[in-house]
Specification:
Helix content: 10-25%
Order of helices and strands: HEEEEEEEEEEE
Radius of gyration: 15 Å
Strand content: 25-35%
Number of domains: 1
Strand order of the largest sheet: 1-8-9-6-4-3-2
Structural class: mainly beta
Oligomer: single chain
Number of helices: 1
CATH architecture: Sandwich
C-alpha cells in the first residue's frame, strides 16, 4: 500500500472510530441499488488514455471544517456538487500510480453532507452490464463528515450518485480490474 493510501486509510479509520464513539452506533447498513442516470454535477473530462469513459475531474479544494475530523482541513481532491453541500474525497487521484480497482475489499471514501442528513449512495456501470455498486454507510454521524466503503463489483466506467436531504452529487470514475 502506498504512503498516501495508508495515511488516508488511517485517517478514515480513526474518523470512523471517533464518529462511532461519539454516537454509540455500530451498525453498518449496506446499500445496493440501481441509480438513475442523471448527468454529473461537475464537468466530466474525457480521458482517452484509459477509455472513452467521461471521468469527472475532482477539484483541488479545502474541505469544510468538521468536529468529527481530528485534523484541521487540508487541501485535497474532492468531487463537490454545485451548492457545495455534498463532497466526496477522491484521494486516489493524488498518486498517479494508484487507480480504483474492482475488489471485494472496496475503497474507503470520506464524505461531507448536510449535517445529520442520511447519506444514500448508488452507482451503476455505464459501459456494460454489472451488478450495482455496493455502499457500506455506517449510521449516526451527527456532523457533516461521513465515512463510507464503496465496492465496485467489476471494472469499467461507473457513475456514483450520492443523495442527502435535498442535495445530490454525481460523478464518473474509471475502475480497473482487481489487482492480483
Amino acid at each position: 500500500m502506498r504512503a498516501p493510501a495508508r495515511s488516508l486509510t488511517l485517517f478514515l479509520s480513526c474518523s470512523v472510530l471517533i464518529g462511532l464513539a461519539l454516537t454509540g452506533c455500530t451498525a453498518i447498513t449496506p446499500q445496493a441499488a440501481n441509480a438513475s442516470s442523471p448527468s454529473p454535477s461537475t464537468s466530466p473530462a474525457d480521458d482517452t488514455t484509459i477509455s472513452a469513459c467521461p471521468v469527472t475531474e475532482p477539484l483541488w479544494v479545502k474541505p469544510p471544517d468538521d468536529p468529527a475530523v481530528g485534523n484541521p482541513p487540508a487541501y485535497g481532491h474532492y468531487f463537490v456538487n454545485r451548492d457545495r453541500s455534498i463532497w466526496a474525497s477522491a484521494w486516489w487521484t493524488e498518486a498517479e500510480e494508484y487507480r480504483l480497482h474492482a475488489s471485494e475489499d472496496g475503497v474507503k471514501v470520506g464524505w461531507f453532507r448536510p449535517a445529520g442528513a442520511t447519506l444514500a449512495i448508488t452507482g451503476q456501470r455505464l459501459d456494460g452490464e454489472a451488478p450495482p455498486l455496493e455502499a457500506h454507510i455506517p449510521c449516526c454521524y451527527p456532523t457533516r463528515f461521513q465515512a463510507t466503503g464503496l465496492i465496485f463489483p467489476t471494472e469499467g466506467c461507473w457513475e456514483v450518485v450520492a443523495r442527502a436531504g435535498e442535495s445530490e452529487l454525481s460523478f464518473i470514475v474509471q475502475v480497473e480490474r482487481e489487482s492480483e
